[in-house]
Amino acid sequence: MRWLAFAILCAPATAAADHWAESLKGAATAEYEASYVHAYERPAMDEGEADGLGLAGLRARGQVGGDLVGYSIGVDLHAGATAPGGFAYDCAFYPMGLGVRFGKWSRFAVIGGVAAAGATGTIDDAVILPAEASLELALGSRLRVIARGRLGWVAGAPSRQDGSPTVAFADELDASFSIRLGSRKSDFGLAGRGYYLGVGYREAEGSRFVGAVIGHSIDFATR
Amino acid sequence: MRSLGILAAALATSCVIAPRKLRAPPNDQATVMLISGGLAHPMDEIARHPWFAVRRAGEQSFRFIEVGGGGGEDPFQNSPYVDPILHEVWRGAEAERAIECLEREAPPWLNALDYWPYPGPNSNTFGDVMLRRCDLHASLPATSIGKDYRGWFGAGVTSEGTGVQIETPLLGLKVGLQEGIEVHVIGLAFGVDFWPPAIILPLGPGRLGFADR
Q1: Is B12 touching A (CB cutoff 8 A)?
Q2: Average pLDDT of B3-24?
Q3: Which of B12, B41, B188 sits opposite A195 (nearest CB)?
Q4: I need a labelling partner for A97 at 20 to 30 A (CA). Which of A42, A59, A63, A119 fits?
Q5: What is the pLDDT of residues B79-102, one digit of tens each?
Q6: In chain A, where are the structural domains located?
């Protein structure tokens, strides 16, 4: 009898929890990316710094929440080399953020977290507190604009602080603008994929870099 | 910048020169074929699944030895996998020996499989393990994510038998005469194959250049 009373009391709460779980909407993106940026503007008396930075790896982003607004997270795992030669890495974890889905296929997110990045011999190893804003905008069924900007506040590497000539309140700036050409389907949820090509831009240690970005991206979302 | 554009165009058109024709040999001898297919959209360009299509002499249809399992008269039709690639064919006495070995080695491995799509063990780990256990000299493409999974740490001879590899889930290295040089970063393979010449990439058919033969 006690179990019956318990079940009757808990039934509305269980139903509400079920309804809440069913109403959750999600979206995720994974990008395999290779990029190279080369310095085109250097401060005077700047020796021993990297002229170029090439990275390859995986970028993953996820969002869960309502139809429009959701909680966003992300992970970056990139490794590569600098010119002159040195092993380079850039890994980040973004445990907090806010994303907005607009339309079925487009979204905007701002996320923040912690990163570790550096290169042997040319870029001092540092812990970075990054904040990233990203936009994925569907233009018809085949084209997708992928724009991304990341500001970084550097800890543990004085040489990398105040390194962005444009943004006075941050130490580093990374940005990219790419166009993806691909396909999308809505058989089971919403899913698309394609290769993208774009422009990469970086400001660090007083230098400005520009280069190219190439990658393959896939995206998923609930309806 | 221009070379990156060319690379993008080549990847987008899945540029592999001289791939094996998707044609099953006659059934006068036993046949084993190593085939892989891309996962369904949108994963088709980044992940593949392998199967051994086996047929004894005189039989009409193929049986698939894989994680999953099926079969049919057309060894290249294995739904839901798309864009099949034929990697290797064994015939005659070699195929008979391979079938016996696969039938002996596959069931216990599959029964003990604690499947993880990434980084493994998964269907590609199964394919690579069977190649090594049955001494079948071939390799899976770079997009067979999980083929190099060896647990937290592993080292040994490669599936093609002419090289060595050392692996962790984070980083790995494969070096060999036929294998070329492959660096594995979080399960993604990048490298150079010297013969047939190709750049190894974890996208599309897994290589840019001549097909692996």
Answers
A1: yes
A2: 69
A3: B12
A4: A119
A5: 899 999 999 999 999 999 999 999
A6: 26-221
pLDDT of residue B132: 96
The string of DSSP codes covering chain A is -HHHHHHHHHHHHHHHHHHHHHH-EEEEEEEEEEEEEEEEE--TT--SS-SEEEEEEEEEEEEEESSSEEEEEEEEEEEEEEETTEEEEEEEEEEEEEEEEETTTEEEEEEEEEEEEEETTTEEEEEEEEEEEEEEEEETTTEEEEEEEEEEEEES-GGGTT--SS-TT-SEEEEEEEEEEEEEE-SSSEEEEEEEEEEEEEEETTEEEEEEEEEEEEEEE--
**Assembly ipTM:** 0.73
The residue with tokens 């064919």 is: B89
pTM of the model: 0.81
B14 falls in which pLDDT band (50, 70, 90)?
low
Q: What CATH topology corresponds to A26-221?
A: Porin (2.40.160)
pLDDT at A2: 46
